[in-house]
Amino acid sequence: MAEKMYGNIVKAVVDLQKQSLVVDAEMHADIEAFLLENGSSQQDLWGINLYPEKFGTDEFVEFDSMINIRPRQKNMSRYIEDPTIRKQILDLVTRKITE
Questions:
Q1: Exposed, middle or buried, 68 (CB in 10 Å: 0-12/13-18/19+)?
Q2: Residue 97 belongs to what H/E stretch?
Q3: Cα–Cα distance for residue pair 52/73, rounded to 1 Å
Q4: Cα–Cα distance measured from residue 41 to residue 52, given in angstroms and rounded to the nearest whole number
Q5: Percent residues over pLDDT 90 in the chain
Q6: In whole angstroms, how far apart are CA 37 and each of 33, 40, 52?
Q7: 27-47 pLDDT, tens digit each
Q8: Is the pTM of this model over 0.85?
Q9: What single DSSP character describes residue 2?
Q10: Which residues 6+ apart lie within 8 Å of 10 measured at CB?
């Protein structure tokens, strides 16, 4: 997937409420729109980047996406600022990848 899009990156969006991980789109917003059309709530969706060649390291997941800018949820940047949300995402990604 990474080679097809950007060479070393796979874009993904997680739905923390539904415990889902959707990958492989050109833009996080494309995945976000798909999830919203299929019953997800905006507040539960977070954009991340996966770096397959860094699997097993702290650099495997990058918490950076335009869809993460959410003033009403006190996330003022592209980076997911809440450490609790980042941990929930890491746990979800780890579980989905190792299933």
A1: buried
A2: helix 83-98
A3: 29
A4: 28
A5: 82
A6: 6, 7, 28
A7: 999 999 999 999 999 999 999
A8: yes
A9: H
A10: 1, 2, 23, 24, 49, 50, 51, 52
